[in-house]
Amino acid sequence: MKLIKGVVPPMVTPLVDNEHLDERGLERLVEHVLAGGVHGLFLLGTTGEAPDLPYEVRRRLVQRTSEIVAGRVPILVGVTDTVFTESLKLAEFAKACGAAGLVAAPPYYFAAGQPELVDYYTRLADRVPLPLYLYNMPSQVKVSIAVQTVVELAKHPNVAGLKDSSGNIGYFNACRYALRNDPDFAILMGPEEAMGEVVLMGADGGVAGGANLFPKTFVDLYDAAVAKDVDRVRELQERVMRVSSLIYGIGHHNSSFVKGVKCALSLMGICSDVLAAPREPFNARDRELVRERLVELGALSAQ
Amino acid sequence: MKLIKGVVPPMVTPLVDNEHLDERGLERLVEHVLAGGVHGLFLLGTTGEAPDLPYEVRRRLVQRTSEIVAGRVPILVGVTDTVFTESLKLAEFAKACGAAGLVAAPPYYFAAGQPELVDYYTRLADRVPLPLYLYNMPSQVKVSIAVQTVVELAKHPNVAGLKDSSGNIGYFNACRYALRNDPDFAILMGPEEAMGEVVLMGADGGVAGGANLFPKTFVDLYDAAVAKDVDRVRELQERVMRVSSLIYGIGHHNSSFVKGVKCALSLMGICSDVLAAPREPFNARDRELVRERLVELGALSAQ
Amino acid sequence: MKLIKGVVPPMVTPLVDNEHLDERGLERLVEHVLAGGVHGLFLLGTTGEAPDLPYEVRRRLVQRTSEIVAGRVPILVGVTDTVFTESLKLAEFAKACGAAGLVAAPPYYFAAGQPELVDYYTRLADRVPLPLYLYNMPSQVKVSIAVQTVVELAKHPNVAGLKDSSGNIGYFNACRYALRNDPDFAILMGPEEAMGEVVLMGADGGVAGGANLFPKTFVDLYDAAVAKDVDRVRELQERVMRVSSLIYGIGHHNSSFVKGVKCALSLMGICSDVLAAPREPFNARDRELVRERLVELGALSAQ
Amino acid sequence: MKLIKGVVPPMVTPLVDNEHLDERGLERLVEHVLAGGVHGLFLLGTTGEAPDLPYEVRRRLVQRTSEIVAGRVPILVGVTDTVFTESLKLAEFAKACGAAGLVAAPPYYFAAGQPELVDYYTRLADRVPLPLYLYNMPSQVKVSIAVQTVVELAKHPNVAGLKDSSGNIGYFNACRYALRNDPDFAILMGPEEAMGEVVLMGADGGVAGGANLFPKTFVDLYDAAVAKDVDRVRELQERVMRVSSLIYGIGHHNSSFVKGVKCALSLMGICSDVLAAPREPFNARDRELVRERLVELGALSAQ
After folding, report:
1. Among candidates B170, B213, B206, B173, which has minimal Cα distance to B191?
2. Which of A283, B92, C136, D194 has the fewest CB atoms within 10 Å distance of its CB?
3. What CA–CA distance (Å, rounded) separates A181 from B274?
4. CB C291: neighbour CB atoms within 10 A?
């Protein structure tokens, strides 16, 4: 049986400053997404800026979120790290806090070859105390987990699924096809711009960054797709595309998606837009642009 | 109104040798795909090995195919070239042969910037005598036609659509969303591994290489998607994935997709597997593998 | 014995318009570089915009240049093409015009694997009537000719050398080391920013684009390097870097090097700055910048 | 005045297992390179597998090496990290241990834009208690520090130089040219395959991984280059190329350089070949190959 299905927001990490969680913001954010009906939370992914967060902040985030969620939905914790023992330590900590599963992208300094990836994930899955999800994220880690590598790793009893953020639809569908008969292996789509259609085709769900902002939209979309209601999927997917085109394209760098989501959350009164050092939030001009577009989306009143 | 919708196979170019068409093979191939019900043909794309074909062969292909098709379906002709005047000359020739439209990827030696792409396509669209489709193919030409560039070019009265072979589903959906209200601009998916789902979501069709082999499968898939029959789409898409996983993964180089399709067509008795120089067909071992898999797919009898 | 050593400018192609050579400009350009003492000319390379030129213009360029040079220095002709037979035809034509050698980068649409490159160059070297130089240009053709591939091809009696434009110094030195005992195989550096040092270390010369503008500087640099006069090499290389930093950095796209060189030649009264379609010359603002910098370099008077 | 010039080996990190230094090996390694006359040591770079080492191991390495070196040569410590505060903590620790300088590559998960790099290095240089070297390593961190960014950062009083491991000779020479008049800014070449020639041209030295194995060869090479003895540079550079071609090409993955150096050091009786988890040392077959080649190089007796 699959551990998790549905909409699992990759949570942003609300910060007061580089070393401290915005704990009130975190509380509001968790309640906001749970109110939207999401099926689980994914902490410490790319949207969560995990690799750039001090370890103490990562642990505090896992602990506090677990306390706030209090078992209402399962929590997945990202343990991606270049240091193998740090992944193990965080995995143990996550288990102690009550997390349901772990997620790991390949180590991201030395680019691993496919046999090295098999070896890496096997060792990790052998030692961590919770089910492990593979996290395919080639744009950040320079390598893609090949379809054959996914297939081989899926045989490991502690490998529970794949989160694919490549955006490569041929790859995603090849993984899904190859593992279509595995009743325990979940395949989740990263980019929210494709969540609707892949669930319609049988995928298990999506790790949609925009669900930080509009969780209900994504839950409705997932439900419509599971119900094979094509018209409703089209309609909701159009709303997702509208958010994507209005909010994520502001700013110029690799991290502008995160900046956009945090800025919008801040404008919506949910949490701070402070980013992990050394990144800065949007400047006043970009922030004003986000505000205007949230008004356009009906997520803020025009004042 | 959109010039073309549905399944448009990017036709392989049957060859006797590097300088001569396999004309009997071409005839069989055209009849094979037309019998499958395809909605148009696309000549001289990547699957057609266009950039590597002698110009005389390109012209002969356009002429002979037009004669064979004799107006039964519209024909699109690829005019991608690094030499601007060669694109224009082939466009005129295509028009004279009765083609319905043209397709052009960006010039592929100097990597163009986005303003250069706007300029390039504007000039081309200004001068060619048939509607022009943009062909996004970053893996071969090193640049992607940005969403904003597509949007800008879509305003040109002679730009008729986009064929996207990037495989990047976020990009594809962003283009489709941006141009959702343009009644004349068609958006076609390149990778066949995603054709079903994007048509279900409202895309106009697919340029599926596998439709050279199994045209009816793709036409059925398209029809099911247009009818919003999700179960049937899933079922047929699964067959597409099966072909993809069995036939296209043989061989190691950038051109192995073309080699696989031509080898299969040759084994199915349709046309020769000769490739444009200096590429060689599959060796005996790989050919035998393709044969076994075609038997497995039910496309050949076991003998 | 090596066919060619020293400074071999990759000649720009002076154009009146996209379909016609600027023949007077060509004459002035050839005399300009010959007056500087260059050891050979390389026609129809990247700087020559070869892949974008109509075939008739390519042939006319080879013919006219041969007539102008009249045997004073050897001429190398680029035959890079995606169409194998076009490479062969141009090679025959070059031979008929009296060229000394040929240069070919890998085919640039389908990215060839290393075994395919061995095969490609072997076939080409077998059939062309003049010595063939390998042209490593990964930024444009997407693949690098691996060191082992170069070593294998160097055994072919008709493969005469390597022009490496990768800018990867480890690769260049590995090729040179691997072939250090081959008395017939020439290794030429593409980027002029490194010509001095590699000749000092024993390389055979450079294909320096800037030698279109300042041929004597490069010849002096080559001579100083051959004479192992380190101080003089440093001094001249510094001038090369100055030109590079002032002229080539203007403009934003992949072709801005060519634009800069053509613009400077036009300002120096040598030839037209028309580019192969669909590229445009620098606009007035960029042209003024080039003018100012040529004054700064002492190549134009301030007026 | 430049803080450091000459040969600065990027030290491998000898390990007993993933969590413990091979302290006896470290001692032998340090004495081995100091006996060769190197001008400084660089700890915790790519060759040192820094991003993959547990933090405790990093600190222990800095402390023990400082004790062993005991001021005989300056020590540079790599503080590259995705977590800003970890860079700061290690910088303080390095200072306390008596290190002379720090080295940092860009954060390597989110790819920074150039303005972000200016911001990042400015903040880092503002806060660390020792001179900071920029470390350009695009193959691992996905971004190159642009020439203009280097020039801008060089103005910061606490930025002391650049280690360029890009292998892009045009980039290296452009940086050196741009900063030729800065008496305090050192420019060091990463790839050892080019150290000789760039020092001949005026660069400040090299961070040559092979100096772990053959420190005296690199010191002799550096001295010959400083003395402008071209023939001697050629001769020694040829030995460097021989080592490079024999030892570094074994193995297939991104980390095979490190594996090759550690394997050779182990065979030479200097230190263990254990790698940071989850990487494995060469298998018996590759190890035997390294042994044979060390014999061929005269670094091991044939037994």
Report:
1. B206
2. A283
3. 38
4. 19
Q: CA-to-CA distance for A65 and A9, rounded, in angstroms? A: 13
> Which residue in the set B18, B84, B113 is minimally distant from C252, CB to CB?
B113
The candidate with the shortest Cα–Cα distance to C129, out of C87, C161, C163, C162, is C87
Chain C: give the shortest CA distance to residue B238, in Å.
28
Ordered per-residue pLDDT tens for chain D, 303 residues? 788 999 999 999 999 999 999 999 999 999 999 999 999 999 999 999 999 999 999 999 999 999 999 999 999 999 999 999 999 999 999 999 999 999 999 999 999 999 999 999 999 999 999 999 999 999 999 999 999 999 999 999 999 999 999 999 999 999 999 999 999 999 999 999 999 999 999 999 999 999 999 999 999 999 999 999 999 999 999 999 999 999 988 877 778 899 999 999 999 999 999 999 888 999 999 999 999 999 999 999 876
Q: Angle C263-C264-C270 (CA atoms, 0-180°, nearest 5)? A: 95
Distance from the Cα of D92 to chain A's closest Cα (Å) equals 16
Interface of chain D toward chain A, CB-CB under 8 angstroms: 18-19, 46, 49, 51-55, 82-86, 107-113, 116, 119-120, 123-124, 140-142, 252-255, 276-280
* Whole-angstrom distance, CA of residue D120 vs CA of residue D134: 11
Q: Which residues contact D51 (CB under 8 A, 6 or more apart)?
A: A82, A83, A107, A109, A110, D80, D81, D108
DSSP 8-state class, residue D12: -
Residues of D in contact with C173 (CB under 8 A): 193-194, 237, 241
Write out the two tokens for C147.
């060191």
- Suggest the residue from B84, B132, B141, B261 to mutate for an interface test with chain C (most C CBs closer than 10 A): B84
Q: Chain C closest CA to B152's CA: distance in Å?
A: 18
* Separation in Å, CA of C259 to nearest CA in chain B: 12
| Residues A169, B194: C-beta atoms closer than 8 Å | yes
Nearest to B116 among C49, C84, C253 (CB): C253
Residue with tokens 């909409």: A7
Chains D and B touching, counted as 3 or more CB pairs less than 8 Å apart? no
Chain C residues inside the 8 Å CB shell of D194: 169-170, 173
Strand-pairing partners, residue A6, are A205
d(CA C165, CA C154): 18
Query: How far is residue B100 from each of residues B11, B81, B132, B173, D254, measured CA to CA in Å?
Result: 15, 19, 10, 26, 49
β-partners of residue D136 are: D164
On whether the CB atoms of residues A287 and A263 are closer than 8 A, the answer is yes
Give D167's contacts in chain C (Cβ within 8 Å): 168-171
In tens, the pLDDT along B196-247 reads 999 999 999 999 999 999 999 999 999 999 999 999 999 999 999 999 999 9
Q: Considering the entire predicted model, what is its pTM?
A: 0.96
- Count CB atoms within 10 A of the CB of residue D39: 17
Size of interface C-D (CB pairs under 8 A): 84
SS3 per residue for B64-95 = HHHHHHCCCCCEEEECCCCCHHHHHHHHHHHH
Distance CA C301, CA D4 (A): 43
**Residue contact D201–C198, C-beta within 8 A:** no
Write the single-letter amino acid at C238.
E
ipTM: 0.96
Tokens of D168: 């892009």
Shortest distance between the Cα of A35 and any Cα of chain D, in A, equals 31
What count of CB pairs under 8 Å joins A to D?
104
Comparing CA positions, the residue from D11, D19, D21, D98 lying closest to residue D61 is D21
> Positive or negative, the Cα torsion across A117, A119, A125, A131?
positive
Residues of B with CB under 8 A from a CB of A: 167-174, 177-178, 180, 191, 193-194, 196-198, 200-202, 228, 230-231, 233-234, 237-238, 241-242, 244-245
